[in-house]
Amino acid sequence: MFDFAAHNLIALGMKKLGKAVAEVTLNDFNSEISIPLAFLDSISAAELLIRGRILEVEQRENADDLQKIELLHGYSIRMAFPRLPELLRNSTGYILKNPDVYRQAVHLRTRLFTENVNSTQLIECTLSFAFEAIEPLMIECWSQIILLHLPEYDFDIDHHIEKVLAHYEINTSYHDSIET
Question: What is the three-class DSSP state of 27?
């Protein structure tokens, strides 16, 4: 059961992150709503991926079922988004490549609910969070990159996203470490 659950958390997290990246780069007439939602979706996707990875490792190590259930539901305070990198490190030994970028996303998420955050900040944070903090985890653990998990569009979304990444000077050097 938990193997299947870990697989689903990971698969859904990758698709959700791809969707968030695509949506945050599109100039939507409704960007006042769609950009903040895409930012929040990237955080939700990261939570799924991190919890899925921990569950994947703990399943192999026969961790107790209560911890596995917590990972599935994410309800415990131990599973809160700001604490997930520490839990990931303690459970799997994996250390996020850019913890400062992760912390910036945590901070911006809090600010989003308490003050006005402009779209440019949200776009840049979403992209740096996705490509500099979360994608290295995807590459190292599952040999996957975000661009493999984008939704279908009637234009070349990959090329569009690559242009936006260059505009915001987002580091995608981790792609070099994977053979696609």
Answer: coil
Cα 131 to Cα 17, 63, 125, 158, 174, distances in angstroms: 10, 30, 10, 14, 8
The answer to whether 174 and 135 are in contact (CB under 8 A) is: yes
Average pLDDT of the residues in 109-120: 92
Contact criterion met (CB below 8 Å) for 19 and 151:
yes
Euclidean distance between CA atoms 90 and 88, whole angstroms = 6
Residues in the chain: 180
- Higher pLDDT pick, 72 / 132: 132
DSSP 42-92: HHHHHHHHHHHHHHHHHHHTT--HHHHHHHHH--SGGG-GGGHHHHHHHHH
Cβ burial of 39 (10 Å; 0-12, 13-18, 19+) is: buried
Q: First vs last Cα of the chain: how many Å apart? A: 30
Tell whether pTM > 0.70: yes
d(CA 134, CA 145): 10
Cβ pair 77, 86 in contact under 8 A: no
